[in-house]
């Protein structure tokens, strides 16, 4: 399991065997990432995009209808006129303003903590030598295997003992680090971080923290961006634990949404409007920061 | 490691990390604190009473909180709602176990009330002696359900669920059956078997694409809830394997499914909603709270097509309680509010808005209930129909694993017959095995 | 600054342990300051790795260890959710009863088949998508965000959509099948059909997520490897097979491990597919996974002790898989 097997350098073995012939068309085959996507690539991506977006788009469609129309077949496939009303109801019923504020705080803290702690831990596991390393790595992976539904009762006991119920830290702290994140960064850095670079810095007398700051972090940035994004989304959408730890008085978005659709007849349209309200900020953040984080840094990291 | 400096150094590193962690905790605590205090609301000197419910309570919508706040200017009421009881109840259990995170008033569904009244009785206030509570206000069986063996009452009854039968006049007419609600009630008065027989008659002339009823489980539920002893007898012994109530109700449901009278649906799922919208079935056993559901799902197209008739036998399906946990912050105020919310006058007001039938019979003569008519259901006098059904409901014996056992019959056994085409014998065996696994400790 | 990071990549990257580092070559003489510095340096090299992994383990100890141990302890007791303080010692009974618990074995089997049905296509598709995303594309960021939306879409919304898709009477899939003359399928009631449907939800939710992870790793593959492959006249497909995939091996392994763990704990999707009372996984438990069985035991039947035993069994199964995996890997390495 500790995956030392996988790290043999996969150098393109036969490279020098042939003399470099005339280059095939300029720009097309030069290097992997410079390749332009052909029409097939666009077609496949478009197909998957439609599949991926459909539920979200349909959420918006449902949120713009009224509840009884949603039950009828065929289901509505285009927008109706109730969107503002449903959004308004969802906003006031679910205490959305506070919920969004809380969730940004919670998801931001978790994403930040996860990226920071998991990157340095992942680096240590990938490139440094210390005692009990493989045991500790095994332990880390082992913690991933604990079914998340299970720790809830004892965890709540801890939280209640600390008098943290209904406080945001009860949601932030237990998820502030993740074994997944450590393992993810470790696997990334094993391949992406050249050992000679670290050694060279060492020879120049750089301390470990300097190595982390000047060498590891720049190399790790694409993976950190991805990990941050994934942790943020995960924290944003988590509700199994928050619904136990928080109440509607101080909710995150997902906790607030469970309160929608009151009365004997849950109003599906309002529920969908709430779901939309809960998802849109996330997508907005993706589009805004995603461009910078994922797009920008990836380019920078590779092209320099 | 060798040498003491090494250990020292390592300890220092660990200590440093702990210190960093502590700083972080402090920071987060402040964040949480400010966020929480931002919502704490309530001006100076006001008491904020919190109330935790699942979806079906309509206190806020009926204006009851506002009214109470007017009567008691020093009180603010905050409601925390989780739509589904299956998410709400485990949360309540966890909170009770840890003694934290509880609201001042917590709601409990009838399927869980026995467990609360037995296992968890010590964690709730005894409401039987609270000021203003008159035991005689409530239906006796409702009161009993929330009372433990020592006579402590852990919850006050809110609504109940007397059953009627909702039916579609247009489909009945096409099938050559009567459409007047009195006449329809007479078709099956006294015996659910007659309901099945009516279904057979319907099937012979059924309009294309329609069936008589929604599901085998619906027939089963309607029938079983009319018996005083179902899964437990009066001494608390589990009798689900050979109780006459179960046998009779099971046979009825099997007849309905095998006879092709059901739409083979599972209640409260999306396809069930869609079937309402598409007029797929002609009847459904309906407690009062289901009327709103039908109206919403069948939509404008179903207006004046549905009506309500009396069920073959009086039965109760659903209903809730509210109680005050001992760990509540404002116990005295919470008890006062709970008593007020469940008083006959307030229950009548709630019916007006929410169509939940009061568990306090004196409400039935109040105008909000007595004169209630449901415009969507052809102006049916729903107040009178359901109040009549409510008065004759037998005292239901309930036990600790009520919910698990009931679900095994409806969601496992009958669903296997209805949807998977398994033989009743195999399905019965699967049900019993399911229950044994669920109740086995 | 990032140029340096990528410039020296290559042969040495495999030496993940690194070599024991010596103090700087140009030691500033035997002076006192120099000795202090070199000692500091040694300490730094030796102990800062612990500092690096410490936050993770501290948090884990605070919020993960107690629940884990408590769970293990509870699994040896008869304890109900209603009264977690009231524990009665039963030894290994909760575990032995699992041995002849048909529901447990059924759930174990379902977990395995759904796991295979969902993980394999998902990772293959993710790899392919990452490869496409790695091309120079117009609106590159749009495609990435779009493919990640399933991961961000709320469960409530996804539920409604998939129920609409797989409905027996009014579902869109059956409607489409009907259009080409195939009879309606009762997706939820059949064993294979329901498992297929659940797998499709898993695939839908997680493919874009894995694609993004692969993409991040692909970005780190240096251009020169592609260049030399291209000089060899390797086609796109060959470049993908002989450059991209080998370079991604740690990441691929990572996703396999994570997906295997995820598949073993599979919970949300079958619950969501099951609708009301989804913890049973269908009338015959035909798509009840171990995660659902654990949930049903703990949160529906309220048998906390038994639920804990199921959880620890899942944990042990995963450790077993890990051990077998490690042994196989060692064997393979030796035989090379």
Automatic annotation (TrEMBL), chain A:
<dbReference type="GO" id="GO:0005886">
    <property type="term" value="C:plasma membrane"/>
</dbReference>
<dbReference type="GO" id="GO:0055085">
    <property type="term" value="P:transmembrane transport"/>
</dbReference>
<feature type="compositionally biased region" description="Low complexity">
    <location>
        <begin position="1"/>
        <end position="18"/>
    </location>
</feature>
<keyword id="KW-1003">Cell membrane</keyword>
<keyword id="KW-0813">Transport</keyword>
<dbReference type="InterPro" id="IPR000515">
    <property type="entry name" value="MetI-like"/>
</dbReference>
<keyword id="KW-0472">Membrane</keyword>
<keyword id="KW-0812">Transmembrane</keyword>
<keyword id="KW-1133">Transmembrane helix</keyword>
<dbReference type="Pfam" id="PF00528">
    <property type="entry name" value="BPD_transp_1"/>
</dbReference>
<feature type="transmembrane region" description="Helical">
    <location>
        <begin position="99"/>
        <end position="123"/>
    </location>
</feature>
<feature type="region of interest" description="Disordered">
    <location>
        <begin position="1"/>
        <end position="33"/>
    </location>
</feature>
<feature type="transmembrane region" description="Helical">
    <location>
        <begin position="269"/>
        <end position="289"/>
    </location>
</feature>
<feature type="transmembrane region" description="Helical">
    <location>
        <begin position="135"/>
        <end position="159"/>
    </location>
</feature>
<feature type="transmembrane region" description="Helical">
    <location>
        <begin position="211"/>
        <end position="233"/>
    </location>
</feature>
TrEMBL record, chain B:
<dbReference type="InterPro" id="IPR006059">
    <property type="entry name" value="SBP"/>
</dbReference>
<dbReference type="InterPro" id="IPR050490">
    <property type="entry name" value="Bact_solute-bd_prot1"/>
</dbReference>
<protein>
    <submittedName>
        <fullName>Cellobiose transport system substrate-binding protein</fullName>
    </submittedName>
</protein>
<feature type="signal peptide">
    <location>
        <begin position="1"/>
        <end position="22"/>
    </location>
</feature>
<keyword id="KW-0732">Signal</keyword>
<dbReference type="Pfam" id="PF13416">
    <property type="entry name" value="SBP_bac_8"/>
</dbReference>
TrEMBL record, chain C:
<dbReference type="InterPro" id="IPR051393">
    <property type="entry name" value="ABC_transporter_permease"/>
</dbReference>
<keyword id="KW-0812">Transmembrane</keyword>
<keyword id="KW-1133">Transmembrane helix</keyword>
<comment type="similarity">
    <text>Belongs to the binding-protein-dependent transport system permease family.</text>
</comment>
<feature type="transmembrane region" description="Helical">
    <location>
        <begin position="112"/>
        <end position="133"/>
    </location>
</feature>
<keyword id="KW-0472">Membrane</keyword>
<feature type="compositionally biased region" description="Low complexity">
    <location>
        <begin position="1"/>
        <end position="10"/>
    </location>
</feature>
<feature type="domain" description="ABC transmembrane type-1">
    <location>
        <begin position="108"/>
        <end position="325"/>
    </location>
</feature>
<dbReference type="GO" id="GO:0005886">
    <property type="term" value="C:plasma membrane"/>
</dbReference>
<dbReference type="GO" id="GO:0055085">
    <property type="term" value="P:transmembrane transport"/>
</dbReference>
<feature type="transmembrane region" description="Helical">
    <location>
        <begin position="247"/>
        <end position="267"/>
    </location>
</feature>
<keyword id="KW-0813">Transport</keyword>
<keyword id="KW-1003">Cell membrane</keyword>
<feature type="transmembrane region" description="Helical">
    <location>
        <begin position="145"/>
        <end position="167"/>
    </location>
</feature>
<feature type="transmembrane region" description="Helical">
    <location>
        <begin position="47"/>
        <end position="70"/>
    </location>
</feature>
